[in-house]
Every structure is written in C-alpha cells, then in structure tokens.
Amino acid sequence: MYRSTKTYDHNEGLSCTFRQWRAGHSHCRLLHGYALAFKFVFAARELDDRHWCFDFGGLKPVRQWLHEMFDHTLLVSEDDPERARLEALGAAGLADVRIVPAVGCEATARIVHAKVGEMVRSATQGRVWLESVEVREHGGNSALFSPA
Question: Which reaction equation describes what this protein catalyses (predicted)?
C-alpha cells in the first residue's frame, strides 16, 4: 500500500464562520470562526507511471473547491433553528452562506471527504482513494474522518 499526504495549512486563508447551535452550554453556540487547515491522506495499491501515488498537480480543482466552500464563508447547518435568519445575512450581502448537513470539525471532515474523495476517484479512474481527511481549527483542535 502506498500513501501520500497533502496539507492546506492555516495560512491558506480558509477562514470560515459557523456556530454549533446544539452546544447550548458552550460559547460554541455563538457565531465564531477559524482559519481551517486540511490534511488529506491518499492511498493506492499501485503507483502511476511516474512512480507517484497521486499527482499533486491534479489538486487544483480541490484547492479551488476548498476556497469556494470555506474562504470567508458562513457555514449553516441545515437543521439550525436560526437558518432563515442566517440565510438572510447572505441575501443582504452581509455573508457568503453555505448550507451544509452539519457543522463542526468532525462534520466538516466528513463533508470534505465525500467531495474530495469523489474528485480523487474520478481523476485517477479509481486507482487512488482518499483514505482520510483531518480538519484543524487551530494547533490544539482537529478531527479526522475516514470511512469505515
């Protein structure tokens, strides 16, 4: 098994805002943000003709999607009871809103894994798969997702 990794660190500028509305006991229930960082682990059973697991030059669409999704955006959980009010910020031109199934580091890792995993499979005709995604809020907090 071969593995390679790619990291988009905090200095990539993927600064997004969200709130964990279910965290009523915590300040995480409030709007807050992070410059997110992502680490991808790619895996393959065979190397390509250049002896690479994955050609990092092929990640331009991944980087573009990460910026579209997380660069100065407001992530709103689809079940947030304040969803309409938060979407109104977007309608008023005050926020670039993204509706997602759930928010938080773990949920974000799963969302990113689904999207980037499909991009990698498609780009390599299934030779390479995305083994895991790590999302870091800062140096002290991160979450990992890998399918079972």
Answer: 7,8-dihydroneopterin 3'-triphosphate + H2O = 6-carboxy-5,6,7,8-tetrahydropterin + triphosphate + acetaldehyde + 2 H(+)
Cα separation, 37 vs 9, in Å, equals 4
CATH 3.30.479.10, applies to 2-145:
yes
How far, in Å, CA of 99 to CA of 1, rounded? 36
Stated pTM of the model = 0.94
Q: Domain locations in the chain?
A: 2-145
Separation between Cα atoms, residue 130 and residue 120, nearest integer Å: 7
pLDDT digits (tens, 9 = 90+) for 43-102: 999 999 999 999 999 999 999 999 999 999 999 999 999 999 999 999 999 999 999 999
Give the Cα separation of 6 and 53 in Å (integer). Answer: 12
DSSP secondary structure letter of residue 132: E
Q: Mark residue 13 as left, alpha or beta (left: phi above 0; alpha: psi -120 to 50; beta: remaining).
A: left
